[in-house]
Amino acid sequence: MRVALLGPTTVETDDGTPVDIGGARVRMLLARLALDPGRPVPASTLIDDLWGAQPPADASNALQSLVSRLRKVFPDVTLEPGGYRLAITPDDVDVHRFERLRAAGRFDEALALWRGEALADVREAPFAEPAAARLDEARLTAEEERFSTGELDVAALTLMHERHPLRERVTGLLMRALCAQGRQSDALRVYEDVRRKLADELGVDPSRELQEIHLAALRGELTPRTAVDRLPVRLTSFVGRDEELVQIADRLGQARLVTLVGPGGAGKTRLATEVAVRHPLHAKGRVWFAALAGVRAAEDLAGAVLSAFDLAFGGDPLRRRAEGMNRIAEVLGAGESLLVLDNCEHLIAAAAEFAGDLLRRVPNLRVIATSREPLAIDGESLCPVGPLSVPDGQADVSGFGSVRLFLDRAKAVKPGFALDESTVDDVRQICRRLDGMPLALELAAARLRSMTVRQITQRLDDRFRLLTSGSRTALPRQRTLRAVVEWSWDLLTEEERELARRLSVFPAGADLAAIEQVCHHDALYVLTSLVEKSIVDVVETDEPRYRMLETIRVYAAEQLEASGEKHEVVDRFRRYYRDLTARWEPLTRTSRQLEAIAMFEAEQDNVVAALRGALDDRDVGLAADLLGGAFWYWLVKGDNERAELSVREVLALGDDLPADLSATFRAMHLIMTAIPGTPETAEAAAVIEECVRTGAAQKHPSLAIALPMLAFLSHNPELARREVARAAASEDAWARAAADWALSFILVDEGDLDGAEVARDRAYEQFVAVGDRWGSAMTLGMKAAFVSHTGDNQAAIELYERGLDVALELRSQDDAVQQRWRLAVEYARSGDHESAEREVAAAEEYIRGIGNDQMSVIVSYAKAEVRLRAGHVAEARELSARFKEAAESSTVLGSFVTEWSAILDARIAIADGTPDEAEACVAAAITTTSDRGDMPDLATVAELLALVRHAQGRDDAAARSLALAQVIRGRLDLGDPDVRHLVALIGEPERLSITKAEALQRIRAEAGIST
């Protein structure tokens, strides 16, 4: 969601769809929160800012009511200890984009954001006038700065001057513009008018600055002059780094030494050059650039800087440094100056001494240094320069800095290259695997002269051989990726190299404890030195994590291989993660679940690497332990594909697997591959008995859910009941909750809906008690579905919303998407089509954020149903066609694709007045649901058949189908408005005294399907 305040208050989704905000007071609240995006605003402040000196009698409740109304259109408003927070980034608000662009010198883009007066429609709010005044002043200042740094437009400046006749900076700019056109007399007339108005209206004289411009105009000095450009030639466009440009410009205003620190290839030199060219001193010819990369000895440093000044010195070699410093200080001290010292890392001590000495001698000097480690002198302000932003599964990647840079350079060598369906996956992979590092991306783009983008992607494992086509004019160490990394590596001490090569075993980085266990028992000081030298990044979390960029890690892995230490270090690495996952796995089902999930999220790639290595080396015990430690986390997070693949690979290791783990993995594999579908009864029973015989059922709590459900899905109710009883007798509280959860399925199948509800309630209470959000979210979703069948849509909506909150807290992608799309459909069933559309949009936005294309298929199905229920039949038909096309490659839906498509197309055909077309679709759905014995789904399709028969004018057959649906489920789905309407038309169906099995046969007969 994006909020615009530079004009009337508006909200739109990321794809540009406008969002209706509501009443004036809601707009005021949104505008006030948007001025502090992502930060909590105290309730007392909001009350003062919205009502001022006359708040309502119950201000707190009035504020809460406003927040509730705002959440209907803007769900991301949260209550935190510090107050109410609008959960958006500053860049989602045009006010903050304006400030960022203005600070970066991008004045045209900044001013283009304005659509009128700031906060135009909320000016009645007490907070609005001061905020609007500040924004109006910022806008005017930006207009002035645009003219100060760009072309002086006489016409535009004249209009500004007429609107603000006493604004002296505008007057000065207009005078300069007039003089530049040879209109000196007009410039002097403007000055005289302003001088008179200042005296008459304010009783003051013009400022000193304006008087100096007047004097310069009188002397004829205000003619355009081209400033000397001493910076390196910019042969390519500058892409990305907008935030860094703002940050460095801000720091240069506060500190006299700003050092850009980062690894080789990060683009420090180009960034420093861009900062320097945008600095006001550049237009005055007061910027110098000293390239130090070619300097080999400390004593030659002053001479290298002097060469940037086009100065030379001779005389006694012993006196050269002192003489050089004097001459450098003399040039820089002639006025305000900016000096760029580029590539200081190999002369770090000498560069630090030089910069410190120069800053003491020349008070008006500012220095930008680039280095792979800080100069570490007083007054230094550091600006880390890391990778450009990299896509992480998002569908739209065009806005990421790394993608923008790659595309820019790609088009330069291969005109016509574009980001489209044929290239986007490869571009995404190139940017991600090259860490978003500018030099690597430029080298990869250069390869497009002779390779396709797919060929580049396929050769990234051999990146040092691939990326060798740099500019011939660049320094040797900047022409190939290997040369860039080797330059950094050669600057390390032997102790630093040892730790660095051992760190290469951690693909996801590691905390200090892991590094000391695997690499070096006392690693902290060497580690911090590697951080200082930009070999290792530190990620600040609760516990700092240390990681290498992938390119550096690949090089370090080569060094580890050559050292002869690899086997020993890798063995320690794998065993460390075996022990870590074993320690944390039980906590994934307790009140420490979020803490455990955070650990697994951070260590995911390390655990996968350890498991992959154990599988490749056929270390059976280690592979089985690692899978056992990570499996439940993958299931909770919805990473079913990884879980299923890993189980299959571990089972392929054969008879060497421990018996209990083999049985457990066979059970998990059977249930994962059976859904959707029906496991073979005898095979399922054999696997369950093996889990009991080996003690796995008692040893692994996850089987408390898996075994009863495996028996249930394979149509073995007696065995399912036995395994429920076993789990219910467990000493593990989570296993007892799982037993009730599984029992609810059995009771529903038996037609005991009240008993099933009691079992679900017990399961939910127990999951909450042990702190398992996954079980809680699943149970809430089930409760919501069954409450909806009673006709209480609102109660179901509230349950889905609670389930969604829990799933989002858990960061379980599958559960969050499913809760949200079911919530959207429930809103549509209740008749609240606006809320249904909002939930679909929120689900789509969530999926774009996590980059899960498979889950987008499910949401597209929900979208079709939501649009259909809102009466948009043609659009629903089009969405159905798109769903079927996308679902063909879906691993989420599997065999459900045919069934879901048939149900959706049947609903569309009924709405479109073609019931005979709907009949064929319903028959297909009844076939699949009855074949697998899925009674709840079969009941839904039986109700759909009743709707078809009614549309065909066969109400007697419609009544029979409703009666059969009532037997199959135990009740009709009165939460479906179509079913409610049909019952109102033809009456309640008769109660049939038949079994579910008989009802199944009859409904197949009603649909014309052979039994």
TrEMBL record:
Residues 1-88 bind DNA. The keyword DNA-binding applies. Residues 1-88 form the OmpR/PhoB-type domain. Coiled coil: none annotated. CDD domains: BTAD. Keywords: DNA-binding. Pfam families: AAA_22, BTAD, HTH_77, Trans_reg_C. PANTHER family: HTH-TYPE TRANSCRIPTIONAL REGULATOR RV0890C-RELATED, REGULATOR-RELATED. Belongs to the AfsR/DnrI/RedD regulatory family. This is SARP family transcriptional regulator.
